[in-house]
Amino acid sequence: MECGRAGQDEAEERLMSDEEEEEGEEGWDDWCSDGDDDAGGGLLCLFCSSRFDSESSLFSHCGAEHRFDFHGVVRGSGLDFYGCIKLINFVRSKVAENKCWSCDQAFASNSELCSHLHAPRIEGKGPWEDDAYLKPFMEDDSLLHSLSFDDDGGDEDYGMSIERGECSAGNGGLAELLENKLGDTIEDGSDISARFQQGCTIDLTNGEGSESLAQEQNDKQLKVARASVNAKAIKSVDDSYFGSYSSFGIHREMLGDKIRTDAYRDALLGNPSLMSGATVLDVGCGTGILSLFAAKAGASRVVAVDGSAKMASVATQVAKNNGLLYDENIQVQQKRGSQVISIVHTKAEELNHKIQIPQNGFDVLVSEWMGYCLLYESMLSSVLYARDHFLKPGGAILPDTATILGAGFGRGGTSLPFWENVYGFDMSCIGKEVTSNSARFPVVDVVASQDIVTETAVLHSFDLATMKENEMDFTSSFELRLSESTSGVTRCYGIVLWFDTGFTGRFCKENPVVLSTSPFSTPTHWSQTIFTFEEPIAMTKEESLVGSSASVGTDECPAMTIRSRISIVRASEHRSIDISIETTAVSSDGRQRSWPIQIFNL
Predict the structure, then answer these.
(1) What is the rounded distance in angstroms from the CA atom of residue 149 to the CA atom of residue 168?
(2) C-alpha dihedral sign at 233, 239, 240, 245
(3) What is the mean pLDDT of residues 331-354?
């Protein structure tokens, strides 16, 4: 496969040197599809795509072909069963990055890595001994499910007999027993880790001989089983999430959102110096519209990833119908220049399990990852993973900035006006109850610009080219004052949040673009996210005489400022977010009144 950048003068400015370009092309020549993970069944080799019927034949192959003596490393490092699990997950994680598990040297392709592999050069504690590697690196890893552990003196160390294959990550004896007991925990979406810990504690303390279990081994067993249950819960949420995007209705809504789709089209088609001859990764491709734009913009290679099997199939057919689908079975000289799109059914975090690509081999990463209130659905973490593992250093991420903003809204932003006159009848009692319920649950709806009563505040800005995943959780303190267009005493009923994303001049030099979901802009399918106060706060811009007994925020003592502190964090339930809002009204004479913290889940 060729990068196809010859003759593109503007694109050549991005190339480092002729030698580096040749190396990059060789890396893309190695790109190939491994097909579905389940194809052929069996246990997947730690280093290549070979599969085996038993762990013994797999480890024999690893020793003969990849110089990896699993049992020798286990004996030499004195690993117990859990150490074996961590070693396997560690090796898989390194191979996914095309890095040597022993010396950590990085390579451009899997084939180069496999040619380099050598006997271990590790002294002292191995890097795989971190408990983080108890969590399976590869979802439903059959090797972990079948892993056995024989140790002549192991029974005393464990305090319990571990028969061959009895205790394995994911579906072993102890883990499976406790997972079955806690199946309802996964069903109701509650805090799985906490309830699983409780269930394990009850089971272990009530069973026969439980006092003989060493506490350290108990902790390890709990970590393995708990990680398995959490992985299953995350998989359940992911299946539901990707399944929801299998409905054409939601794609019709997104494609019909001209503000959204035009922004991506203009950014991709309007910046030839970025897109001509570029290799592009599209994360969460859906129907493949962004990949189609990228191909039309002159990309030499586009890999589109989607976690929905149905949408991956649909995107493949769409690319084929438009003459843009890449077919690896056709000889290079027979390909047309426009046949550049490949569709891969997988999550971004598991892309290396599906295909072999050069490490950090893409020039451009594009994704429409934003959810309600920007961070709902938490797809951003997948985009950041793809950026760190698949994007070239200095490569472009589109969009490259995102900002959450907010303002106070008035009575028109609630449902009260509607219920006060329903075909001439007063149903305000319903409106009051609906508004009261809104103080506990966020509402996604369009707020008209005339219903915004305060100035706009910036809560938080993200630089998607540099941010870390933990920066998705943040706390922001800000003040709200009545806008210039608002006069007299006005009631603020709550805070509405929205976001802007930017395709800035950092990467989009010819045509920077801003995608805004502001109430002052044309509405989008994201609308805005509304958080209603427990009670409205009266505000004014003018100083007023205040009676000593009047409460701040009432009509008798309106506030001049609302001080708010908002925290947005990823919730324990996968792909959800928790939002807490602290509110304090400040009068013209400096008196304050605070309300209890409101906590919302989205």
Answers:
(1) 9
(2) positive
(3) 79
Q: Which of 592, 407, 587, 566 is nearest to 483 (CA)?
A: 407
**C-alpha triplet 232, 443, 432: angle, nearest 5°:** 130
The answer to whether residue 573 is catalytic is no
- Cβ atoms of 175 and 144 within 8 Å: the answer is no
CA distance 583 to 590: 15
Give the distance from CA 498 to its chain's centroid. Answer: 19
From the list 162, 306, 325, 159, the residue with the least C-alpha distance to 238 is: 306
- Backbone phi, then psi, for 146, in 5-degree steps? -105, 0
So what's the pLDDT on residue 82? 80
DSSP code per residue over 507-575:
T-SS--EEEE--TTS---TT-EEEEEEEEEEEE-SS-----TTPPTTSSSS-BSEEEEEEEEEE-SSTT
Catalytic residue among 10, 377, 433, 455: 377
Catalytic residue among 368, 542, 556, 582: 368
pTM, rounded to two decimals: 0.64
Distance CA(539)–CA(589), nearest Å, equals: 13
Sign of the dihedral defined by the CA atoms of residues 257, 263, 265, 266, in that order: positive
In tens, the pLDDT along 109-142 reads 888 899 999 888 766 678 888 877 887 888 778 8
| Cα–Cα nearest to 494, from 594, 372, 407, 431 | 407
Q: Provide the terminal-to-terminal Cα distance of the chain, rounded to the nearest Å.
A: 44
Q: Which of 383, 362, 371, 347 is nearest to 465 (CA)?
A: 383
377 noted as active-site residue:
yes
Summarize pLDDT for 205-234 with one digit per residue, the tens.
Answer: 444 444 445 555 555 555 555 555 455 555
List alpha helices for 449-518, DSSP H: none
Nearest-angstrom CA–CA distance, 276 and 336: 16
Choose between 49 and 160: higher pLDDT. 49
**3-class state of residue 352 by DSSP:** helix
pLDDT at 155 over 50: no
Give the best-scoring range by mean pLDDT among 185-194, 207-216, 554-563: 554-563
- Neighbour tally for 600: CB within 10 Å: 20
Lowest-confidence segment of 184-198, 206-220, 328-342, 353-367 by average pLDDT: 184-198
